């Protein structure tokens, strides 16, 4: 499936686990995950909560894992608020030997992260 761009401005994203290099298992050994061009990927866990809209009850949030195309660098500790740079989503599904779909879902990825709020002001100083 192709990358499907989405507008993330309706959500606030808080880091729940700092970005780390994405790893995968190959023949029982953990190795860095890379894209088709050989670039290393990173992952970050975020709590995504809908922004408050006047006249509506606030929506509940959800923790999501986002794959990042580049190392976001320092300053994205747990509790910091961020924006996603060029966010996209993809769908996935697994099919058993019998042809039946055994699982499906969405996965998120972005080019990178940008700090917002107090963290952004501190990084700019």
What does this structure look like?
This protein has 125 residues and is mainly beta. The protein has a single domain, classed as Nucleic acid-binding proteins (OB fold (Dihydrolipoamide Acetyltransferase, E2P)). Helix content is 6%, strand content 51%. The strands form two sheets. It has an eight-stranded mixed sheet with strand order 1-8-9-6-5-2-7-10. A two-stranded antiparallel sheet has the order 3-4. It is globular, with a radius of gyration of 17 Å. The termini are far apart.
Per-chain topology:
Layout (H helix, E strand, L loop, with lengths): L3 E2 L5 E11 L1 E4 L2 E4 L9 E9 L11 E7 L12 E5 L2 E8 L5 E10 L1 E4 L2 H7 L1
The order of strands across the largest sheet is 1-8-9-6-5-2-7-10
Instruction: Based on Cα principal axes, name the global outline.
Output: globular
> What would the average pLDDT be, to the nearest integer?
88
Share of residues in strands = over 45%
Under the CATH scheme, the architecture is: Beta Barrel
The CATH superfamily bears the name Nucleic acid-binding proteins
Helicity level: under 10%
| Level-1 CATH class name | Mainly Beta
Count of structural domains = 1
User: How many E-type strands?
Assistant: 10
Tell me the distance between the termini: 41 Å
